[in-house]
Every structure is written in C-alpha cells, then in structure tokens.
Write a structure and sequence with these properties.
The complex is a heterodimer of chains A (about 350) and B (about 600).
Chain A (H helix, E strand, L loop, with lengths): L1 H26 L11 H29 L13 H32 L15 H30 L8 E8 L2 E6 L35 E3 L2 E4 L4 E7 L4 E5 L4 E5 L5 E5 L5 H6 L1 H16 L1 H6 L10 E5 L11 E7 L1 H9 L4 H4 L3
Parallel strand pairs in A: 1-5, 4-10
Antiparallel strand pairs in A: 1-2, 2-3, 5-8, 6-7, 6-9, 9-10
Helix pairs in contact in A: 2-3, 3-4
Chain B lengths: L1 H8 L12 H6 L4 H31 L6 H7 L10 H37 L7 H20 L30 H30 L12 H32 L10 E2 L2 E2 L7 H35 L6 H15 L14 H13 L1 H15 L8 H18 L1 H4 L2 H7 L3 H31 L5 H27 L19 H31 L66
Antiparallel strand pairs in B: 1-2
The chains are: A alpha+beta (about 350), B mainly alpha (about 600).
Amino acid sequence: MTTLLIFIIVLFVAIAIWQMVKIFDLAQIGGSSNQVASDKDNTFNGYMMIGFLIFIYAITIASFVYLGDLPLVSNSASAHGPGLDNLMIISMILIFIVQTITQFLLHYFAFKYKGEKGRKALFYADNNTLEAIWTIIPVIVLAGLIIYGLFTWNDIMNIDEDEDPMVIELYAQQFNWKARYSGADNVLGKANVRLIDIDRANILGVAEDDINAQDDVIVTELHLVVDKPVLFKMRSQDVLHSAYMPHFRAQMNCVPGMVTQFGFTPTVTTAEMRQNPDIQDKVANINELRLENREEIEERGQDLRYEFDYLLLCNKICGKSHFNMQMKIIVETQEEYDAWMATQKTFPNSLLN
Amino acid sequence: MSATAEIHDHDDHDVHHHKETFVTKYIFSQDHKMIAKQYLITGTIMGVIGVLMSLMFRMQIAWPEKPNVLFEALLGKWAPEGVMDADIYLALVTIHGTIMVFFVLTAGLSGTFSNLLIPLQIGARDMASGFLNMISYWLFFLSSVIMVISLFVEAGPAAAGWTIYPPLSALPMAQGGSGMGMTLWLVSMAIFIASSLLGSLNYIVTVINLRTKGMSMTRLPLTIWAFFVTAIIGVISFPVLLSAALLLIMDRSFGTSFFLSDIFIQGEVLHYQGGSPVLFEHLFWFLGHPEVYIVLLPALGITSEIIATNSRKPIFGYRAMVASILAIAFLSTIVWGHHMFISGMNPFLGSVFTFTTLLIAIPSAVKAFNYITTLWKGNLQLNPAMLFSIGLVSTFITGGLTGIILGDSALDINVHDTYFVVAHFHLVMGISALYGMFAGIYHWFPRMFGRMLNKNLGYLHFWVTAICAYGVFFPMHFIGMAGLPRRYYTNSNFPLFDDTADANVVITMFALIGGVFQLVFLYNFFRSIFYGKKAEQNPWRSNTLEWTAPVKHMHGNWPGKIPHVYRWSYDYSKPGHDEDFVPQNVPMKEGEEELHH
C-alpha cells in the first residue's frame, strides 16, 4: 500500500513538474528571451555555487554523523586486519583533505569570478612551475601509498607455510556454502566435481579411495580456532562465487575448475566480539530497528532478536538467490573447537551406502 | 558516391545542389550533423529506459519485496501481484549497466559529439567516409533494437551483471536470463562493437587527414584531442571484447571450453574441461577498463572546451592537458587487472596492477587542477553548459579520489563488489560522463538545431540533478564500507545490515527526485527543437570553427571556401584585442605571437 501511495505521489509530482515547467516556460516568452547567461544569472548561479559547496560539506558531515558507525575500519577480527584498517584510515584522511580543499577552490572560484559585463578575464595560458608542483606532489603522495599498500598486500597474500596453518576447503555452490576440514593429517583428500555422487551423499566430489580424504570432515558451519592460522582452499562447483568475510577483512573468488586460496589468523572469538562495546552498541541499535519492523520480520519467519555472528557471504553475482548465500563462522578456543569437532562425522562415515 | 567525393575534395566548391529526399536527409543520411542527431535521439531514448530501470531496482532496494503498481504495470509476469521477482531484479541491474555504459555513454556521447564536432571543428566538409558513418549509426540502431527486444524473451533478459562473467552467463541452467536473453545480449553487443569500430576508424582518419589549412595538431581544440584519443582506445580495446563475446558464444552454443571447466550443475556433470573463467575476466576488462575512459575522455574534452569558452580564458596548460589525455589513454590499457585482485590470479600480478592503477591519479590530478586554474581570474559566464562542466569537475574529483582506495589491492579486499564500488564508478564515470553529455547538449544545441535551450529550465535541471547525484552516491560509500554487497535483491536475510536500511531509503528518494526531474530536460529539449528561441550565429562567442558555419542544413558545412586557421582555439581575452575572443579563422595581427607554444 505504501509503495502504491508513493508511486501515485511520484506520478503527481511528475505531472505537476511538467505543468509548472510549461507555465514557467510560457510565462517568460514575452520578457527577456535572451537564452545566454546575463549578469543576473551569473550572480544567482555564483551564489548557488557557494550554496552547493555548503551542501557537499553538509552531506559529508551528515553521512559521518548518521552513518559514521557503519564503515568497517576498526574492530577487525584477524591478525592482518589492523594493518589494513590503518591503511584505509590513512587513505581516507588523505582523500578528505584533498576533497575539502579542491571542492572549495572549484566552487569558490566559480563564485568569486562570476561574470560581469565589461570585465576582462586574465589571459593566463600556462605556468610550468605550477604544473610541476601538482604533478610532483601527487607523485610523492602516491609513491608512499603504493609502497605502504604493496607491503600490506604482500603481507596478506603470502602464506607462510612454516606457521603450519590449518587447511580448510570452502566449497561454493548455488546457493550455499560447505566447509571441508582436512583432519589430523592437515591434507585435503583429492576432489573433483566429476566424482560427485548424490546417491551416496558425496556432494563435494571427494575421492573416496584417497588416503588423505579418510579423516576429512564436511560441515555447514565454519568453526575456527582463535589465534590459529587458517588457510582456505576454495572451490566452486557451478558458477563464480566470492567468499567474503568482512569482519576478517578477507575475500577471494571461488572459481570453477581451479582452486583459489586465502589465509588469515582469527584473533577474536565470537564470544569476545559480542562483549565488545562497539559491537554491543551496533547490535542494540539493530535490535531497536528490528523491533520497529516487528511485523515484517515475523512474517518472514525470522528471529526478531539479532545476535552478533561472524559471517561468510557470497559477494559475486551467482544467480537468483545470490542475496541469501551465507554461512555462519564461529571463532572459539581450542577446547571448544575440539569438543565441536568430536561431534562431527568424518567423510567416509558421512557417505550413504 | 563519386559526386559527393568530388564535392568534398574541392576546397573552394560553392553550394551544391544534389537533391535530398526525406529518406536520404533524415533516415539514411550520410551527413555527419544528421548522424550526430540520430545518435543523440537514440541515445536519449535508451537513456530513458536505463534510468527507469534504475529507479525500479532502487525502489526494490529501499522497500524490498513490497508490492508496487509501477512494477506490476511495467514488469508484468515478472512482478506477480506487484512484487518484483529476484531474477528480474538482476536482469534490471544488468541491462541498466549495459545500456548506460555502452548505449548512452559510449554511443550516445561519442557518437553524437564526435560526429557533430570533428568535421566542424577541424574544418572538414564531412567525415572521411560518410557511407561508413551511416553504416555505423544503423548498426548501433540495430544493436539497440536487439537489446530492447531481449527484454521481452520468455526466460527473461540477460541477468549475469553487465560484466557477464561465465559460467553464470554461459549456462542457461544457472540462470533463466542466460538462455535466449544472453544470446541476444551477445549478438547485440557484437553488432554494437562493429558499429563502434566503424565510427572510431572514421574519427581517426578524419582527424589525421582532413584538418583545414593551418589546423596543426597543437592548434586542435581539446574536444578533438579527446575524441581522437578515445577513438584510438576504442580501436585497440573493443575488438578484444568482440573476441571474448565470440568465444563465449562458442562455449554456449558449440560446446567449446574456453571459459568453462569442471562444472556440476542441477544434478549433472557438464563436459567442459580445461577452460578458465579468469581468462574471460582478463579479456572483458581489457576492454572494460579502457571503456571507462572511452566514456570519460569525450566528457572531459567537452568540459575543457566549455570551461575555457565560458571562463573567457584560455584553458590552463594546453600541452599538459594533451599530455594527460595521452598518459591516461596509455595507462588505461595496462590497469585492467585492478578489477581482478581477488579473482584468483597471482597476487604478484595484483601488485603490478596496483602500481599502474595508482599512476593514473597523476594525470587525473593534473587535469582537475588545470580546470580549477582555468576558472581563476576568469569572467565566468554561468550558462547551463558551464554549470554541468563545473559539476563534472566536482564529481570527477569526489569519485576519482575513492579510486585511490579501490586501486590499492590490499584495501580492495574488503570493499570489492560492495556498494563502495558502485558509488565510486557512478560518480567518476557515470555522473561525470552524463554531465559532460548534458553540458555538450546545452552548449551545442544552437549549433545542432539553430535554436536555444531555455536557460532557466537548464538551471533548474542542473541544480536538482547536482543535489540528487550527491544525495544518491555520497551516502552509498558508507553502506559499502559497512560490507554491504552489491547486486543483492534484498538485504533482509542479513540482520547485520539492518542499520543500512534507512540510508537506502534516503538514497532511493534522491534517485526518484533526480530521475523525475530529468523530465525538465526532456521537455526543454524536445520543445526547443521546434519552439526554442532562434539562435545567433555564435551565441557563446566561441573561437572554434563550428560557429563560423551556417546552421541551415547543408552538405559540406561551409558555403564557399573552408575557413583557414591561424591560431589555437583558446585566444580568449587576449591582450591587444578589443573583443574577449578571437576566432581561429582570424589571421594574426602584425607582431602578434602564439603564446602557448
């Protein structure tokens, strides 16, 4: 109903604008019909430029006030997260300084030098010193950013095998995620989609006779051990997907026909993160919003109360239900993890005969 | 043909009199000015379709899964009881992107202004080949028609995103839109590319060969430099997309495995083996990234011209402007990998592409600062075209700066494919290029139709559009940094993102207002074609040659001799002259120097 009303309002507004424009247009035919900007137009639009500059600053400030809590630039849950957040904050500060200054100059000049009849502009075609200045300054700044960025990137992407990371396979299919733990040998059994046997519940196409596959464990909820490095090997069985774990500042595409990888070390358990004051504020705010939309949420059959959890989302368009392809991630202590793992079936035991 | 060729070859030929029928004048015209208008009108119609689609999916994002009579009326079976279907949501997103990037901002922008301005500004009687130019337009028309037809096929139009990554786009069982809809999309794009190549080759040949006497490359207006370089990038990169499209057609219809391997879908293993989707990504973005500049450079060229004319000042740093166009063009062909940092390609390649990508910020910064310096101590005539040009510089800066984050492979990890990206590229190429197109229309409308657009409606159009553009895309950065992925039909399955819902409603409101206010422009445009005030010969007191030619429809542009050129196009407010402009065809006074060399 609301959308119907909104649509009708939009329609009426459209008609009203069309009519107003027509009147507006017809009304001035008798008067000055010169369609080139006059001094009056220049003055009006010059002041509008200042107004617009204020608008840009205002929407920036408003965005920070109302949406400033949203950006994921703090409270990362992985070892490489703070470094990446730092780089993000430095880049953002830089951007805001440049943005504030250049937008000021652009709009202020547009106001200050608004045209007047009879005034002549300054014939000023070139200045090599100025050109050199605003070539060299960006060069220096960007050199810094590039170097910092590449160190961060290499640090994240180079996986140190000496750390003996826990190897886990992330397996994507339209429209859900599975995870396969490599077990005590920390080696994943061979797998290929051609080995998929739905009747035997071998849904990941794991080679049944591979010795390394015997202790593999396939699950639908990802459990990680705090402070223990993990190396994800990613596969997809059908189309491109992307394993996006925003809280860990981690993402990698899953590509049919090849294995991709991403590694990180989780540093904060789910329980600890739920105790984080920032996260508690965020969750409280979300729960307040959910209470306002109680009816809708219950209609959809969802839990009204939201509790913080790490998530793995699909972030590459993958078809109709792309918007609902997710897996819960739980970061816990070694003991909790061992207790959970003990309740899981190994791959051979999960097969049907 | 021979008769026309003769006419065009002779410099001093008088008005010529071959008979024009309605068909040769308005439909199968070989006259560049008419072809420009055809591109503009077709592009405008496609633009209306593209914008309407965006308003529909914005409403779905703001009020997910709510019945909406607009959906019911326009989407038919795709909106049972007025609730938008998830498949058609993706299709709308896909076709919106395709139409806006290719049909509006490539063909609509380059097609219109390259055609109109290249012969007129360099002093040529027409394009090098009027016939190829005509074919180019009609191929574009054909591809537009096929793209629109694809909206009506049974299983729905292409819905794999405008980047049509396989396997999603290759397998009809992966998605309804990957059946006949995708076939038509690929056919349409293949024809579109042929059209674009014919056009681009024509532009290049014309600029190189048909400049009038005295029009050296260093006296070319920056518009022509931009169109010229754009055409070169197009010729280099569009064929690669054509090959990608052809290989994808082979995979889809003839069982090859260029992009596909090891696929299990809907209970069966497919035969594909050995291909790689990453190869497609490379081929796609080898066009896809230069495409950004194919869209943007003409807009920047138009802006350079309009800012200089309306500031009554020479463009600041002409040589630096040309150099930065060339630098951007060169760099644009070696940065495509920044779309693929997390595609699974070797991280070392990611480092290389980070390096080349961030280098683009340097020529971009030079351009922005030069625009600002051009305004300094000018005598700014704030015509609607000038407002859109200043608006372009503003959105180019705002959108360009966030490129520093996205181009940095490490930072890209967490904002890749989120709304942060959507905000970035809409500001830096979408809105900027659209502003360039609007600026061009307001500025050259008198040249095209001999009449003026109403300036007050132009002001109304600009200010509402400018406010709404920031209203839509500025807050979008924040919800992107919250990790909200793009192309989600609804976010309601992620309570995590509940706190972005209000921002999404605000964004949609701005989009609706901005969208509806484009009616002001459409009204102004179509009404002024017939009833606008008659334009003077040179209403903006501009230096370039197009304002010396009569507006009256005629083949050959100038009755009598083609004007010769004696100076660059930026002698505004030059000391020693009474007027504040000196057209290019005015000979140098005794002792006068060409200062920009």
